[in-house]
Every structure is written in structure tokens, then in C-alpha cells.
Amino acid sequence: MELKEIYEHKRIVQVGGYSHISPKISFEIFPPKDGNISNLFDDIRLLKKYNPVLISLTYGAGGKTQEFSLEILKMLIDLEYTVMPHFTCVSLSREQVAKHIIDIENLGIENILALRGDIPEGMNVSMFDFHYANELVDFIHQKTTLSIGVAGYPECHIESDNIYNDIENLKRKVDAGASAIFTQLFFDNDKFYRYVDLVRKAGIELPIISGIMPVRSLKHVKNMVNMTHVEIPQKLTEQLEKFPDDALKIGIEFATNQCHDLLDNGVDGLHFFTLNHSDQVSEILDNILF
Fold first, then answer.
1. Amino acid 222: pLDDT
2. Any catalytic annotation for residue 159?
3. 3-33 pLDDT, tens digit each
């Protein structure tokens, strides 16, 4: 099922004899570094009860990493999931990207998340065939029928001067053929609502799916700040500092409240960055869905 169909149609479910609209839930996973997928698929099976609209897989291009990712995608398809592999174009040639697209289409996959990716240290974008994500989106759009997801940044991409320039970059990706926007993680819903408002004012009407990352520790939070420049609420930081042994519980409570508020305000979907841990995500979903 393509992204447009997934996010434009209401999902009606029956609970206790009553019909209601079900939130659109999705998950991000990644290939285990040790190559052991048994625990990963235990998590995936546990999360299946939440009827996700799709599972995205962070995806390596080239060599053994690509082959491993393809195997996981095949397994997900066998489990009847709709899948959306990630793909980053930085440092890859057009020929390499074209081959990757063929591999994806040969599996019967309909969706892809197109990203530029992080630039390797000591290099710059001028060295590559693809300089920015919009060029990758255009390439995929011109050569395939894949439905293309792109990234959005409620608190601005780390390389952008300001949020307005960042949304101009988003518009370039949309104009190149994107079908849906999946946001970077955020912890302040007001920043997300402001972002959605600015995106709509820019004339972009695609679904905007909220990226949710449950906090697992104070160290985890600090890593997120360093990597993304996302602002962490002071109250959350204080709780983690005061009760470090309760970090998982604190993360569940915070994300539960965050998701309740997003759903109450009509968010297009919730996309959970699971970090290959189903424990927290499962408790959060139990809190907001049942």
C-alpha cells in the first residue's frame, strides 16, 4: 500500500461493539549490528498487535549491509507488513542508486524514505552525484512508481540557518515528488504545531507524521541533543537527573502524554523510533490505544 493511500484513508476499527477511527501507528527499526535478528523479530511480532500501517527499516546501501537489509525486508513482507526502507544517497553514484531501486522494486515494495544522509568527515556535498535529498527524490520519482517519504525537521535541520530556509528545502523535496513527511524526533509539541502551521502556509499539504522517540536514559537524551539540536524540556531533564534508575518509566510517561496531546490535536500519524526495543513502545501504545 502506498503512502498516499495509507495516510489519506481513515482506519475504522471495532472495539466493544463500537466503531472508531484508529490512529495511524508506524515503527522504525534497524538491522542489528551483530547480525542476530531473532530478538528483533520477537519485538516485531510483539508490536504487530498494534496494527501498524508500516514499518520502516534504516537501510544500508552496498555490500553485506545491503544484503542483510534486503533479507530483513523480505521477512517483514512475509509477515504481511507494509514496509518503507530508508535510503541515503550521500557518497553513492547514480548507478548505485539505480541498482538499489531495482532491488527494492523486485521485492514488490511500494514505498521508500529518501534521505541525503550524513556527510563523511573531511568531505563535502560537491564530491557526490547527489548533493541534496531533493535530487534523490527527483531521481526516484522520474525512474520509478515508488511512493516517496521525506524527512521534516520541526526544530530545523542542524545545517539550516533558520526554520524558514529549512521549509524552503522541504518544499523542494515535495515539488520533486514526495508523498509524505516523517519528522525528526521532538519533545515539545508546541514546536511541532508551529512547524505544521508554517509548512501549511508554505503551500505544502502532504501528511506530516510525528516522529516519537521514547527516552531511555539521561545519556540518551544528551546524545539526542548533540546529534540533532532538539530542545529537551527542562522538567524532563530534571526528572532524569533526580531519578536515573526510573528513566524507562519516565520516558514512558512523557511519551504517553505527548502522544495523547498529538492525537487530540489530529496528528496525521505517530512514527515511533523503537531503537529495536519494543518494551517502552508497547507500554506507551497500551496507554494511548486501550
1. 84
2. no
3. 988 998 765 544 444 444 578 999 999 988 8
Reported CATH class of domain 3-289: alpha beta
Q: How far is it, in rounded angstroms, from Cα 186 to Cα 240?
A: 17
113-117: average pLDDT: 88
- Cα-Cα-Cα-Cα torsion 146, 123, 154, 214, nearest 10 degrees, comes to 90
Q: Angle of helix 133-143 relative to helix 94-106, nearest 10 degrees? A: 50
Pick the catalytic residue from 2, 5, 8, 28: 28
CA distance 218 to 240: 6
| Mean pLDDT score, 65-78 | 85
User: For the stretch 115-150, what's the b/e string if a residue is b when 16 or more beta carbons lie within 10 angstroms of its beta carbon?
Assistant: bbbeeeeeeeeeebbbebbbbbbbbbbeebebbbbb
**For residue 52, how many other CB atoms are within 10 A of its CB?**
21
